[in-house]
TrEMBL record, chains A, B:
Organism (species): Sulfurihydrogenibium azorense (strain DSM 15241 / OCM 825 / Az-Fu1)
Residue ranges covered by zinc fingers (C4-type): 58-73
Similarity comment text for this entry: Belongs to the RecR family.
Stretches assigned to the Toprim domain: 81-176
GO molecular function: DNA binding; zinc ion binding
Protein name, as recorded: Recombination protein RecR
Domain of life, source organism: Bacteria
Pfam entry (one): RecR_ZnF
One biological process term in Gene Ontology: DNA recombination
Entry-linked InterPro entries: DNA_Rcmb_RecR (IPR000093), Rcmb_RecR (IPR023627), Rcmb_RecR_Znf (IPR015967), TOPRIM_dom (IPR006171), TOPRIM_RecR (IPR034137)
């Protein structure tokens, strides 16, 4: 492949090491970066460099923040006895957007995935137990994704926490709002039926 | 969204301006960059910066190269009277990998796409005509992608070139090697039938 310049090969190799990227998608991203107006491309990598410099997990909850303790954990108005456990920071941002949750978060930084070699020791679980003891937590809401891996992660955490005197809950399964019944998958529909509520 | 740090929002905005990225996929890429070991992430952006600095289109054919004239165009062994027209550099790299083409390339840098506002003036077409005159080109192989937009681009170029005394060809349509007949789409199968060859 000596017709591909070395530095371009290097960038493609770097990008294809990121989760979710293969050789083709890495090529596409590299080419799209080259096709950007040079000023925009330079800005993009300047911003990424700043991000890498400034952003790190909150010492308390693990959410990505530019402060030592994130604004949610340091807010007087948030109830530290209710912890919502999510896989990634953006899951917490999504819940935050609803404005319905006044507790705090705990970001695992991923999900259990034997195939990708991600075991419990790679997730931010130890500090969850510490927080539960420190703040005498009353409720842990497990809000991992409703996928096989997310469920397995949720179950693992449930088994770890069930010996503590607290409520462990998880997000409801059911029909997404605005959806069409006949398009719902069997699993969602059967869960919606199983957890039907009295009106 | 004041719970998302500003610089993280900025990076997501920058990435989602790239073709093929939306807000969610930009979020995912930003988080994956943050989750990389910091050294690897810093190397990645260092390499991208070097790429942006060193790589530019070949003055002759438009392929991405770190030299003024790419190794293919500057090789004595390549036949400059045969030009293969492709959409992107990686299409040329893919053909190059076959080792079957001894001519030179011409990279358009995209395809006609009225929806994305890409007209002929945004493609590297003018220099193709210059090269045809300069090297008394005998054959132009149109190797745009077999998609609606790629076809339209190929037809546009065909109409521009048909007044010149040269052969204009395009890559064959047909069944991909190793494929299963019953899985072939109708268009591919009907083209395979139409262009059947005597054995």
């Amino acid at each position: 492949m000596n017709y591909i310049p070395d530095i371009l090969k290097k960038v493609i190799e770097d990008i294809s090491n990121l989760p979710g990227y293969g050789e083709k998608s890495a090529q596409r991203l590299a080419i799209n970066l080259l096709k950007l107006p040079r000023g925009e491309a330079v800005d993009l990598i300047k911003h990424i460099a700043q991000m890498l410099d400034k952003i790190h997990p909150c010492k308390e909850c693990g959410i990505y923040t530019d402060q030592e303790i994130c604004p949610i954990c340091s807010s007087e108005e948030r109830d530290k006895t209710h912890i919502c456990v999510v896989e990634e920071s953006f899951d917490a941002y999504a819940i935050e957007k609803t404005g319905k949750f006044k507790g705090v978060y705990h970001v695992l930084g991923g999900r259990l995935s034997p195939l990708e070699g991600i075991g419990p020791e790679k997730l931010n679980i130890k500090t969850l137990i510490e927080r539960i003891k420190k703040y005498q937590v009353k409720e842990v809401i497990i809000a991992t994704n409703p996928t096989v891996e997310g469920e397995a992660t949720g179950n693992y955490i449930y088994n770890l926490l069930k010996k503590y005197p607290l409520n462990i809950t998880r997000l409801a399964y059911g029909l997404p709002f605005g959806s069409v019944l006949e398009n719902a998958d069997d699993f969602t529909l059967s869960k919606a039926l199983e957890y039907r509520v009295k009106i």
